[in-house]
UniProtKB/TrEMBL annotation:
One of its GO terms (cellular component) is proteasome core complex. This is Peptidase. It comes from the Bacteria. GO terms for biological process: proteolysis involved in protein catabolic process. SUPFAM superfamilies: N-terminal nucleophile aminohydrolases (Ntn hydrolases). It holds the Pfam family Proteasome. Gene3D superfamilies: Glutamine Phosphoribosylpyrophosphate, subunit 1, domain 1.
Length: 241
């Protein structure tokens, strides 16, 4: 399993993903879940994935192939689509077709394969938009009422997002929010694991503003986690009923 979270704020996007795909007593694997397509200053598209690795890897490979195809046009390439809505449609169509093909190949083995994606981006002169794409290829969009989207093991990290994140949240505070959301998930679910990939995309930059890979034992992450735990314990003691 995995956990990915994206915030769409007035100031830009904050995106965070883990890298664990298979979890068990003797079977833990690490794969990147965040993928970036960009032409700096013109367009940036970020994709985070959760679910069947065969589905997500094949989908990303096909999207990448289309980007590099000399014959690609606005209906097939996420780097040529005229709007972010069209980008989401291309990704949804590719995901849906890939999933159907793989499920068909696995039918004789009575197995299923499913995947979902978060897509965030902006083209020059366009609005920032972020979508959650379902396995069937349909999608929903982040709004001012719900300025964040999650995929994977999302329930453990949702409460803090509900309490602190609004469209007006600063990028600095948003980074704390997604990292604490991930910290809560890491503590409660073994199917989510480090390293973590953090990406910041400022509004109208149309390029990745900052990237960071957070490894196991990262001192800043450990300090933040410890401070949050201490603050929760202190607040718990002060609460009366």
């Amino acid at each position: 399993m995995t956990y990915c979270v994206g915030l769409k704020l007035n100031a830009g996007f904050v995106l965070l993903s883990d890298t664990r795909t298979n979890a068990g007593l003797d079977n833990i694997a690490t794969y990147r879940k965040m993928f970036l397509f960009q032409e700096p200053g013109e367009r940036v598209v970020a994709i985070m994935t959760a679910g069947s690795l065969s589905v997500t890897q094949t989908t990303l490979a096909r999207l990448d192939e289309a980007v590099n195809d000399d014959m690609a046009d606005e209906t097939t390439s996420v780097m040529k689509a005229p709007t972010m809505l069209q980008v989401a449609s291309i990704i949804g169509h590719t995901l849906s077709n890939t999933r159907r093909e793989i499920v068909g190949q696995m039918r004789d083995f009575n197995q299923q394969a499913s995947a979902s994606m978060i897509v965030a981006g902006q083209r020059k002169g366009g609005d920032m938009r972020m979508f959650l794409i379902y396995p069937e290829g349909n999608f929903i969009e982040a709004t001012d009422d719900t300025p964040y989207l999650q995929i994977g093991e999302h329930k453990y990290g949702k409460p803090i997002l509900d309490r602190v994140v609004t469209p007006a949240t600063s990028l600095a505070d948003a980074q704390k929010a997604v990292l604490l959301s991930m910290d809560s998930t890491l503590r409660s679910n073994l199917s989510v694991g480090m390293p973590l990939d953090l990406t910041i995309i400022e509004k109208d930059a149309c390029t990745v503003t900052a990237q960071r890979r957070i490894l196991e034992g990262d001192p800043d992450f450990m300090e933040m986690s410890a401070a949050w735990s201490a603050a929760l314990r202190e607040s718990f003691v002060k609460v009366t009923i």
